[in-house]
């Protein structure tokens, strides 16, 4: 259940005019963060991200991702992006994300996954989603949907931010947050900054499912 496109789903940090020099400066600033973690002891030096509380009455969706280094838990927010949460949970429970790699990972910025082809140009057989942009802040541990230059082109690829990235606010759909295990996200193998973060022999998702309640 895979489709390919001639347009890569990406975050416009490099080479896209509407972000421009501001994003490039932000990228340079973000890349000054600590390097890739190589041991569980070093992982403890990364503090957990603070998850914004959902409004009263909002039923969040708990999800669990298994990586080779450990388990990461997420809280999905249908109040922010109901169509995107529905898509992610549907694909996850179909096993779509199992063994899918983090094909694009930029130190100090984000880790991107969700393309079964591992090229950044693939997606699911489901139709692309209409944008659900909000003024929600991109902070540490935010889940956002990757897309091409077309705002309504998100499909299955998503990213997890390592640090605050406010320059993405209002341009990419936020659909959830990391609630536990952020140290394992920091351990994902980083890509080549000269190749826009593309990773050689990338790390993969072992499994990703709605968490049993």
From TrEMBL:
GO MF annotation terms: isomerase activity
Keywords: Isomerase, Rotamase
Residue ranges constituting the PPIase cyclophilin-type domain according to the UniProt record: 70-210
SUPFAM superfamilies per the UniProt record, alphabetical: Cyclophilin-like (SSF50891)
Gene3D superfamilies in UniProt: Cyclophilin-like
Reactions catalysed, as given in the entry: [protein]-peptidylproline (omega=180) = [protein]-peptidylproline (omega=0)
Lineage: superkingdom: Bacteria
Top-level EC class: isomerase
UniProt keyword Iron-sulfur, yes or no: no
Record-linked CDD domains: cyclophilin
Record-listed E.C. numbers: 5.2.1.8
Role summary: PPIases accelerate the folding of proteins. It catalyzes the cis-trans isomerization of proline imidic peptide bonds in oligopeptides.
PANTHER family in the cross-refs: PEPTIDYL-PROLYL CIS-TRANS ISOMERASE-RELATED, PEPTIDYLPROLYL ISOMERASE DOMAIN AND WD REPEAT-CONTAINING PROTEIN 1
Family per similarity comment: Belongs to the cyclophilin-type PPIase family.
Protein name in UniProt: Peptidyl-prolyl cis-trans isomerase
Organism: Maritalea mediterranea
């Amino acid at each position: 259940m895979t489709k390919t496109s001639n347009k890569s789903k990406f975050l416009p940090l490099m080479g896209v005019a509407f972000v421009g020099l501001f994003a490039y400066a932000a990228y340079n600033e973000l890349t000054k963060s600590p390097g890739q973690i190589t041991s569980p002891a070093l992982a403890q030096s990364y503090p957990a991200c603070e998850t914004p509380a959902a409004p009263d009455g909002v039923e969040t969706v708990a999800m669990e991702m298994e990586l080779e280094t450990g388990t990461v838990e997420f809280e999905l927010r249908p109040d922010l992006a109901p169509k995107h949460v529905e898509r992610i949970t549907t694909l996850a429970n179909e096993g779509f994300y199992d063994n899918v790699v983090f094909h694009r990972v930029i130190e100090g910025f984000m880790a991107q996954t969700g393309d079964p082809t591992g090229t950044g140009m693939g997606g699911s057989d489901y139709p692309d989603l209409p944008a659900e942009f909000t003024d929600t802040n991109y902070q540490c541990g935010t889940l956002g949907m990757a897309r091409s230059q077309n705002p309504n082109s998100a499909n299955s690829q998503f990213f997890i931010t390592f640090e605050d990235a406010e320059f993405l606010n209002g341009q990419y759909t936020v659909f959830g947050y990391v609630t536990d295990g952020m140290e394992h996200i920091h351990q994902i193998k980083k890509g080549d900054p000269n190749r826009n973060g593309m990773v050689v022999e990338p790390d993969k998702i072992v499994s990703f499912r709605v968490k049993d309640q």
